[in-house]
Amino acid sequence: MGDTTTFFRSPRREPHRRSTAESPWVRRLLITGALLFLGIFLVMPLVLLFAEALSKGLGFYFHTFRDPLTLSAVKLTFITAGISVPLNCIFGVAAAWAITKFDFRGKNLLITLIDLPFSVSPVIAGLIYVLVFGAPGPFWTWLSEHNLKIIFAVPGIVLATTFVTFPFVARELIPLMQAQGRTDEEAARVLGASGWQTLWRVTLPNIKWGLLYGVILCNARAMGEFGAVSVVSGHIRGITNTIPLHIEILYNDYNTTGAFAVASLLAFLGLVTLVLKAWVERKKNAELRATEIRMTV
Amino acid sequence: MAKKKNSVLPGFRLTLGYTLLYLSLIVLIPLAGLFVKTSEISWEQFWHIVTAPRALASYRLSFGASFLAALVNVVFGIMVAWVLVRYQFFGKRIVDALVDMPFALPTAVAGITLTALYAPHGWFGLLLAPLGIKVAFTQLGVFIALTFIGLPFIVRTVQPVLEDLDPEIEEASASLGANRWQTFWRVILPMLRPALLTGFSLAFARALGEYGSVVFIAGNMPMKTEITPLLIVTKLEQFDYAGATALAVIMLVGSFAILLAVNLLQWRSSRHLARV
After folding, report:
1. CB of A240 within 8 A of CB of A154?
2. Model confidence, pTM
């Protein structure tokens, strides 16, 4: 029995052979089913979104973007992402360095805690900052005496956004740097590089695609966050409205076309994110393969 | 945290210190504040808030719809992952990239889009109306929104496992006389189980906490289409901080319990596999 199977085995392994492939009908059925599911759930909403946005013509579409309230929402969204993404980026590199370059007890607990914000509802993420910095909180009297506003103001929006995007960069870098090991950095140190030189010239070039991947995901979430920001924002028009909150206001004002026009901006950013993500993902996998090859040599 | 073993690499204290400080400031201390705030109210009050009929109805909807949505995503997630890994077809790379759209599309955008699509005069709403099916502003709408946002989780956890599956295992199964369906059901599916569990729990946990995509399509009627996160927001807007906090604690404990249960199952099945 063993002999006959080896006899029939072709020298080059092909991914699918007769005995392990489905009949063409099953194949077609599965492809159709999958595409139908994705079509209904993903493609149709996108098509409708852009159709609704342009339903009153290009004039109305661009008119929405000249509205000062829209512009201030766009500005606030960029400011928020501009603060919270770099913060989480620095944190991600520091955490990944500590976790992957050293051995210490409690490492798994630390990794679990870093992932924690992903399992917390965005609404709760907003709520905890209201409890700490808002009217019922311990800092409220001090803050109001010094005329500082965190809740219902920009700092609260930045904090809530930082919370919901907290793990993105770190959880991308930890497995990558784990796989890459410590040998490159150790070699650099033995050859006389300082710690910062090692980081800038050895580690960062090694992880740049993984880092960029994490930043892209982090940024997409930071710009689109709704629940957490909605709780802490106070919805002051022109001051504490981000793009997603502005969409909600337009929508509730029965300016549906305006809401979809502004939404199409975020959808466009989302599509750009997907393209960038697919491209960076390939680079990142190449980065990982490169280290695997180096390790086997 | 304990001592590092001797290493030539610098920066252990700096990076670990910074990590712990930042983690505490942004995540741990504010989250602890939630539990401190809850301890300010009495047990009877807490119990009264979290077992109010309106709260109970919201748990039923949140947990039920999240569970069903994650389940539907398991079935279609396997199908999509299978098709993307095993078959060649036109536009496959675009479809592959598109799977992540629910991650990239902001929830509020998804919310208004799904609502417009399933509203009585929307494209799908018009198709479903003659069949007597109402989606927008019903519990079915909540389920649709949660299916949308959970869609990538299963596909993305199953895909790499399917890619790494050794073809010889399927060959062995076929040579022992199993047909394709038996091979899938008895050989491939059990190997996908850990990934499915992970994907399911991620989708479930995400759906439980979801707010933006649901509030537009749900209609938000108390006792009927009100999810727990929305009830928390409603209480906050009425400055009922104690009520909001108590419900938040219930939600947090609930989602941690699910993640813990899944981790335990995972651990048991990996031990089981190791023994075989």
Report:
1. yes
2. 0.89
